[in-house]
Amino acid sequence: MAYSETKVVIGGLAHIPIIIGFFYLIRRQYSFGAMLRTGKNALSEKVKASPSKASAPKKAPAASKTAAPAKAAAAKTAAPAKAAASKKPHADVPVNTYKPKAPFTGTVTENYSALKEGAIGKVQHITFDLSGGDPEFKYVEGQSCGILAAGEDAKGKPHRPRLYSIASTRYGDNFAGNTLSLCVRQLQYEKDGETINGVCSTYLCNLSPGDKVKISGPVGKEMLLPEEEDSNIIMLATGTGIAPMRAYLRRMFEPTEIEKHQWNFKGKAWLFMGAPKTANLLYDADFEHYKSKFPDNLRYTKAISREQKNTKGGRMYIQDRVLEHAEEIFNMIENPKTHIYLCGLKGMEPGIDDAMTTAAAAKGLDWSELRPILRKAGRWHAETY
Predict the structure, then answer these.
(1) Residues 354, 226: one domain?
(2) Any catalytic annotation for residue 113?
(3) Is 164 a catalytic residue?
(4) Which of 108, 123, 137, 202 is 20 to 30 A (C-alpha) from 189?
(5) Domain containing residue 203
(6) pLDDT confidence band for 82 (50 / 70 / 90)
(7) Annotated catalytic residue: which of 98, 164, 317, 341?
(8) Alpha helices in 68-194 (DSSP H)
(9) 249 and 345, same structural domain?
(10) Is residue 240 located within the same domain as residue 338?
């Protein structure tokens, strides 16, 4: 059949919409496949690359002039920037190597009084040999261990473990890495006219070299030192709460320790120690020695309640010393590299809180807001009992 040129042209034009539709279908299928593979709409990527004015992000509103200065200041003194490394701090610290139901058996190597003549009460420095463990009993400064006293309770069951802060560094008092030391006060109180002795503390204080003791742990990451050598450390301790502080100070300033672990402390350390009498200042000679050798890095402030007076004429407690040095303390806290450690009887906490509240207010800060910020940032460490 023959066609005229006009019919041929008209027929060709009639197929153009069909061809366009065919190419559109192919393009759409490609776009859909790409979206399934990548989760993105390939056709919209160029649009997203140059958003319209309507989709542009709005400017953040200006900070209110009436915002509470305490919150702003607290944010300023919060944590340093998040570490780039994904590894959590202290991720490799051992925890619960030995559990209470399967404890390690240590051997007492020494047990001597940590008090001077004329002191109140009974406090012993006790060291255990940790050799022969499989696995080895390893710990770091700031951790605690559990002690299972021999014998049974009133119900005929084994005594539950009691936790004690470790007073030695990971290398031990002999620097060989196979001992653990505790600083233990014998608990005594009056009940119905009778003196009651604490079960576990009395058991520990009466141990002799060669005795075997069941030990669990180590436990805890709340009181660990920061890994940075240029950190600043403020320590608030009363009584045997000095145990972890002794470990910190030995790690920082004991020459053999420095040689062993190659952790060269470059920051500022400030110890506030509370005791009823001078004779009750635990490890006082050691701390005085460190201060004389490292005067630019260590300050040592004592609060001796029965021998010193505060500004109001009352007994001198550790919270009174905090108030005396409030401005310096908060100048240090404003540095994001400063950590605060609190250890001792639970009864010390309210006094410290009151002192810090007053001291913070003098700087225009709200301590009730600042403390949780510091804790969340890993800069406020408290262990009371």
Answers:
(1) yes
(2) no
(3) yes
(4) 108
(5) 104-219
(6) very low
(7) 164
(8) 69-76
(9) yes
(10) yes
Let me know whether 301 and 183 are in one domain. no
Choosing from 3, 24, 30, 385, which is the catalytic residue? Answer: 385
Same domain, 75 and 201: no
Contacts of 343 (CB under 8 A, 6+ apart): 165, 223, 235, 236, 237, 241, 242, 243, 244, 245, 382, 383, 384
In the DSSP assignment, the letter for residue 166 is: B
- One domain for residues 239 and 250: yes
CATH number, residue 130: 2.40.30.10
Peptide bond connecting 218 to the previous residue in cis, omega within 30 degrees of 0 = yes
CATH number at residue 238: 3.40.50.80
Ranges of H-type helices in the chain: 5-38, 45-49, 69-76, 199-205, 242-253, 255-261, 284-293, 318-324, 326-333, 348-362, 367-376
Looking at 165, 168, 216, 305, which residue is catalytic?
Answer: 165
Count the residues in the chain.
Answer: 385
Residue 267 domain-assigned?
Answer: yes
Read off the pLDDT of residues 190-206 as tens digits, 9 standing for 90 and up. 888 898 999 999 999 99
Q: Is 383 a catalytic residue?
A: yes
Q: Residues 252-286: pLDDT tens digits?
A: 999 999 988 888 999 999 999 999 999 999 999 99
pLDDT in tens, 83-142: 444 567 788 899 999 999 999 999 999 999 999 999 999 999 999 999 999 999 999 999
| Domain total in the chain | 2
